[in-house]
């Protein structure tokens, strides 16, 4: 079942900030921070799972298995990237049912051609709007829990312009999307225009460090009409930099000794994060019977 807290946050007009999660550690850390929502990033999940670009290579099975695992180890509602729905209308239905059954609270579907590409990289092409409308209608009909949200994304801005992107967003909202996601606006003025066009639907802002869209403060995003801001890349960008610093120290020193304070999470802390104290308590309680 979907967590009703996310829909309730939107209904209450509470602005939602969602960090990107991509593996078990990022999911557990983010889950403990008090966010209203977590966002399973396709870019980060594909990178961490396969070590490959987010370019339509990952399958439905790859993604639903990872998403379901994240849902099992967290309490915070999760919206998960599902690319194009992994095929035609029957695939979209299967994907929605699978993501919902996995324990997620929302699914993001986009109108790119297959194979899809990351939204802040070049070369994206979109399918006809009418085809995506059908996908959104199928997705809305397929879900069994009204708290499970359909996020409809259009990548039309980069290739076809802002006017077409807004037109598509409007069509997808009318088809049953709960949240509208206009990918890659290229200025604050464009974001203001998008906000004016969707006063009746929650709008999603994709905040990618170094991406095409300016990153605005939460207060400003709320002022211009957005309801949720996702930060899909923040976690894995920070983690990659931390890996590089730690491994460079090891290479230079031949040891992890002397690693600057704050550069390591600490073994005791990571054990606690991952739930080892519960394992140790279980072992203590059942030690006699286990011999």
Automatic annotation (TrEMBL):
GO terms for molecular function: lyase activity. Keywords: Lyase. Pfam families: PEP_mutase (PF13714). InterPro entries: ICL/PEPM, Pyrv/PenolPyrv_kinase-like_dom, Pyrv_kinase-like_dom_sf. Gene3D superfamilies: Phosphoenolpyruvate-binding domains (3.20.20.60). PANTHER family: PHOSPHOENOLPYRUVATE CARBOXYLASE (PTHR42905), PHOSPHOENOLPYRUVATE CARBOXYLASE FAMILY PROTEIN (PTHR42905:SF2). This is 2-Methylisocitrate lyase, PEP mutase family.
């Amino acid at each position: 079942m979907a967590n009703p807290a996310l829909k309730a946050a939107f209904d209450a007009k509470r602005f939602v900030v969602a960090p990107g999660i991509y593996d078990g550690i990022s999911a557990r850390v983010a889950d403990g921070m008090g966010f209203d929502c977590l966002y399973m990033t396709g870019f980060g999940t594909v990178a961490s799972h396969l070590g490959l670009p987010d370019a339509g290579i990952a399958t439905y099975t790859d993604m639903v298995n990872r998403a379901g695992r994240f849902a099992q180890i967290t309490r915070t509602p999760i919206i998960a990237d599902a690319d194009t729905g992994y095929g035609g209308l029957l695939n979209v239905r299967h994907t929605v049912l699978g993501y919902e059954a996995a324990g997620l609270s929302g699914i993001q579907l986009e109108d790119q051609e297959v194979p899809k590409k990351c939204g802040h990289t070049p070369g994206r092409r979109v399918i006809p709007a009418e085809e995506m409308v059908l996908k959104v209608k199928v997705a809305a009909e397929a879900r069994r829990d009204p708290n499970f949200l359909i996020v409809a994304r259009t990548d039309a801005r980069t290739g076809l312009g802002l006017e077409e992107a807004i037109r598509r967003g409007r069509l997808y909202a009318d088809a049953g999307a709960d949240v509208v996601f206009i990918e890659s606006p290229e200025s604050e003025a464009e974001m203001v225009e998008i906000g004016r066009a969707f006063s009746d639907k929650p709008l999603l802002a994709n905040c990618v460090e170094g991406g095409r869209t300016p990153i605005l403060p939460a207060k400003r995003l709320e002022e211009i009409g957005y309801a949720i801001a996702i930060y899909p890349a923040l976690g894995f960008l920070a983690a990659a930099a931390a890996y590089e610093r730690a491994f460079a120290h090891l290479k230079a020193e031949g040891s992890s000794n002397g690693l600057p304070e704050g550069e390591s999470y600490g073994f005791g802390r990571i054990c606690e994060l991952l739930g080892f104290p519960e394992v140790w308590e279980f072992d203590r309680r059942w030690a006699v019977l286990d011999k």
